[in-house]
Write a structure and sequence with these properties.
With 928 residues, the protein is an alpha+beta fold. Helices cover 58% and strands 12% of the residues. An 8-stranded antiparallel beta sheet has the order 9-10-12-11-15-16-14-13. The protein has a 4-stranded mixed beta sheet with strand order 3-2-1-4, with helices on both faces. A hairpin with a 4-residue loop joins strand 9 and strand 10. It is globular and about 95 Å long.
Length: 928
């Protein structure tokens, strides 16, 4: 095949994969002809007002035509190209009209499209970026007049225009200094004007910018990429990704093209393919994924009628329907749609990442005396300068490695990478992907394969790197098809930030980080890890803990059945398999009990210890729970959960290992003595001791030391006052801690919660303590209605006054709350928080505790929620003896231990009436 034939084949490949989403095609020639006729008619109309009105109507109709074509399944690439063409024609005519008023007709000027518009990828509501280029100072005034005349027309027509008026020299100077401007010029395209001037710009950019300091330019691009990931998300599988900027988004391909321009001298895909820089297989995959993302982005723009790149939960549901996805018995349409999105984004990100590394390597310079360091490895591999590669074939062409690799050697390569921390070469990665069909059922069931995989899972502190590499190259899903099923499986639960596979891998990374940590903060969990006899068990437990998701409800039981088969296939012995299954069966137990139950209740602790059965099981489950919670999303693991989990662990450990209770008692006694010494100048030691004696034993273990100090100070100074309060800014949790002390009475919590609500204070969490002498000592974590900590002491004082008035009977709490909610619910921020998150689930537990009936309310978080629930219970003459309130990502979980006024548990027959009362209160609140 001749060079011309190759180039034509390349262009056909690119065209086919960059603009096709269905068999239907847009005829751009027809669009141009139709638009040309319409625009000529508009130009012939009477005055400027009539022409402007006709132009607006033309643009509206053309937008509707594009939307209709989109709905019929036309590809994303075609839609944006057609949109770019229509805007081109409007700008061309605007330039022609403006040039008529110039003395030279604008002959020495050029109107240039930049950025996405320059790439002919103008989404339905994207901004248009234009450069008005002139030769030098003498043409500056003419260029300014041309731009002014054109821009007024474009603005009046409804376009959002980013523009600049620059000379050749100014363009070169700013390209040297500013990364964004330099990138936009890479995508520059002449719309109208002096072609020679435009070509001079391109030549000067080559000579004075891109051919100089290539390494510096590349470094700047890579730094900008990392900053973008830090802002928008550096992993593909976010619950609400930015389709343009998040890892795996459209920008990943843009960066690859910009890097190619710097390193290889071209951002043209045809040339990169013919030069052998991009493999045709990789290019097809990247362009198919890019095309899918373009189509989704177009859909977001059409849906919202504005520039929208964030694929939020509500838009995911709308896009799924718009793009033809349907619900199944096991998954919502939006979950199926998002899995497709993640798969495409993941492929685009992985291949972009691989070729970026290749480009970086191409710029590396070697001194004349440097040598490649080679080290052979068993299995036909070599280590070349810290990169694992296939061993070259003796006598092969140019020393090229044999691309054939069987499944056993793949497993060996991953093992080497895990053990050494080395990367796999691009050639080896490609060989693995091409050879994946060799990962057969026979290999998966072989003892050698099982032993190799288990060996990797026992590499404490190194497991996640090997697994993620396997996952990225598709090997993990082939070796373990059960994991392939949860790959890119979305979780629409307003809690998990990542897909199931990403959450799983992150949980394993958390455990690795724990093993490799050195700080005091995680020392106690690290010590537990040291007690584990087989680290592979907890890693396998994490790998399988969500394996049953996506199969309908009851993912734990379904996961157990799946894991039993996988453990047998891996040839685990019976004891190991039983421990893995135990972890899957109980993987929610510790978080559930620690966060939703009263840990002072002996029955709760005894029942949990019985579930554990042994100290080894407790240790394993504690590590899994810590890793699982930490991997849900940033900030989900916090001090409050740490304290609760550790309290539950210590109490259960003291039962399973009685010798440990003495150490815990000594630690508690040391704490009492330390606090008594700390407060010696303020409070008598006997009063400090009395404070602890008046509270359950778990108070010492479950309450942070600074909080205990505040509680004692408040109790000491209460005297005849209605209430004493203490405010502290909590920088770690980005909230404010409110501690208060008052004499306990029916409805106390409701009155306080109502007072906070009336002042626009949102309760994030609460811990209620009641001393034996009747003093209530409560701690709240709060923020203002905008989600920020409350930091102004004057504001604290105002809130304190409202609480005192409520407790003194001077304030109608219900009326004050209703007034605040009516105002708050009309605000945009509250509507946004409530969007799609107000489904309420109420549960009752009358068996887990002897202290009271447990009420669980899970619903969308909003101002006044705790008050509405607690006031409903108070109105029914019920007492709240214990409460835990927690908020995660606008989702609230409120736990109340409830008794009758006589201190008795509720009867089962009364529960439906109480539940209906709560639902009615929440419904009324939502309607306001």
């Amino acid at each position: 095949m001749s060079g011309t034939d190759v180039a034509m084949s390349v262009r056909d490949t690119i065209g086919k994969f960059s603009v096709r989403a269905s068999h239907m095609q847009i005829d751009l020639g027809t669009i141009r002809h139709h638009a040309d006729e319409k625009l000529r008619r508009i130009e012939s109309q009477g005055g400027p007002a009539e022409r402007l009105a006709a132009l607006k109507k033309f643009l509206k109709i053309e937008a509707q035509r594009l939307h209709l074509r989109h709905r019929f399944g036309i590809g994303g690439g075609q839609i944006v190209k057609a949109r770019s063409l229509i805007v081109d024609m409007v700008i061309e005519r605007a330039a022609e009209a403006a040039a008529k008023g110039l003395s030279d007709g604008g002959g020495n000027l050029a109107v240039i499209a930049l950025g996405g518009y320059g790439r002919e990828e103008l989404a339905p509501h994207s901004d248009i970026d234009i450069l008005f280029l002139h030769q030098g100072r003498k043409d500056a005034a003419t260029a300014a007049r041309l731009s002014e005349s054109m821009l007024y027309l474009l603005w009046d027509a409804g376009f959002t225009v980013g523009h600049s008026v620059r000379s050749l020299g100014e363009c070169i100077d700013i390209a040297k200094e500013d990364l964004v401007s330099r990138n936009s010029l890479i995508d520059a395209r002449l719309i109208r004007g002096d072609e020679g001037l435009f070509e001079t710009l391109r030549r000067k950019l080559d000579e004075e910018v891109f051919e100089k300091k290539k390494k510096d330019l590349l470094d700047q691009l890579m730094v900008e990429r990392e900053e973008r990931y830090a802002k928008f998300g550096g992993v593909v599988c976010l619950q609400e990704p930015n389709i343009k900027e998040t890892a795996g988004g459209l920008r990943d391909l843009h960066v690859l093209l910009w890097v190619s321009r710097v390193v290889y001298g071209s951002s043209d895909l045809s040339r990169l393919l013919t030069d052998g820089i991009l493999a045709e297989r990789d290019l097809k995959v990247m362009l198919a994924s890019y095309e899918f993302l373009l189509r989704v982005r177009n859909d977001l723009h059409f849906q919202t009628g504005r520039r929208t790149d964030l694929l939020s939960l509500d838009l995911q549901q709308q896009s799924a329907r718009s793009l033809g996805y349907e619900d199944t018995s096991q998954q919502q349409a939006s979950e199926i749609f998002m899995r497709d999105y993640y798969l495409h984004a993941r492929r685009l990100h992985r291949l972009s990442e691989a070729h970026l590394k290749k480009a970086q390597k191409a710029l590396e310079t070697r001194s004349w005396f440097s040598r490649t360091r080679l080290a052979p490895a068993i299995g036909g591999f070599v280590m070349r300068d810290g990169v694992i590669d296939l061993e070259p074939v003796e006598g092969g062409a140019s020393g090229k490695a044999d691309s054939r690799i069987d499944a056993r050697r793949m497993m060996l390569a991953f093992g080497y990478a895990q053990a050494t921390g080395a990367e796999l070469s691009l050639d080896l990665q490609e060989s693995i992907q091409q050879s994946l069909p060799g990962v057969t059922r026979e290999f998966r069931s072989s003892k050698d394969a099982g032993e190799g995989f288990i060996k990797m899972m026992r590499s404490k502190g190194k497991v996640s790197g090997g697994l993620r590499l396997m996952h990225d190259l598709g090997f993990l899903g082939k070796f373990m098809p059960e994991f392939e099923r949860i790959t890119c499986l979305v979780q629409h639960d307003l809690y998990h930030r990542y897909t199931v596979d990403e959450h799983t891998l992150r949980a394993i990374e958390v455990l690795d980080d724990l093993a490799n940590s050195r700080g005091k903060q995680l020392e106690r969990y690290r010590n537990i890890f040291k007690e584990i006899s087989d680290p592979g068990v907890v890693y396998l437990g994490l790998l399988f803990h969500d394996i049953g998701k996506g199969l309908g409800g009851g993912h734990t039981e379904k996961g157990i059945k799946i894991a039993e088969k996988v453990c047998a296939r891996l040839h685990l012995d019976q004891a190991q398999s039983e421990q893995v299954i135990f972890l899957i069966r109980r993987h929610l137990a510790m978080s559930h009990i620690s966060q939703r139950r009263d840990l002072a209740d002996e029955k709760v602790i005894l029942d949990f210890a019985v579930q554990m059965g042994s100290l080894e099981n407790l240790n394993l489950l504690t590590l899994l729970t810590y890793s699982d919670i930490s991997a849900v999303g940033p900030g989900v693991w916090n001090e409050w959960k740490d304290v609760l989990l550790w309290e539950l662990y210590n109490k259960a450990r003291s039962i399973l290992n009685p010798g440990a209770s003495n150490a815990a008692d000594r630690e508690a006694e040391n704490l009492r003595s330390r606090i008594a010494h700390m407060l010696a100048s303020e409070v008598e030691e006997s009063e400090v001791r009395n404070h602890f004696d008046q509270l359950p034993e778990d108070y010492v273990r479950s309450t942070p030391e600074p909080t205990i100090v505040e509680h004692i100070r408040l109790a000491h100074t209460l005297n005849a006052r209605l209430i004493r309060t203490s405010w502290k800014i909590n920088a770690q949790s980005r909230c404010t801690d409110l501690h208060l002390c008052a004499r306990n009475r029916t409805g106390l919590f409701a009155a306080i919660a109502g007072s906070l609500t009336a002042q626009g204070v949102n309760i994030l969490s609460v811990h209620l303590n009641t001393r034996a002498d009747g003093l209530a000592i409560d701690s709240f974590k709060v923020r203002d209605s905008a989600g920020e900590p409350i930091t102004d002491p004057a504001r604290w004082e105002m809130i304190d006054t409202v609480i005192k008035r409520a407790l003194g009977g001077e304030l109608d709490v219900a009326a004050a709350v209703d007034k605040r909610l009516r105002s708050q619910n009309s605000a945009r921020i509250q509507r946004r928080k409530q969007n799609g998150s107000n489904q309420t689930v109420i549960g009752w537990d009358n068996g887990s505790s002897d202290r009271g009936t447990i009420l669980e309310v899970r619903t969308g978080d909003r101002l006044g929620l705790a008050y509405k629930i607690s006031s409903s219970l108070t109105a029914l003459d019920l007492d709240i003896v214990f409460a835990k309130v927690a908020t995660e990502k606008h989702l609230a979980l409120d736990i109340f231990y409830v008794t009758t006024a006589l201190g008795e548990k509720l009867r089962d027959s009364d529960l439906p009436l109480i539940e209906q009362s709560i639902r009615n209160a929440l419904s009324r609140e939502a309607e306001k």
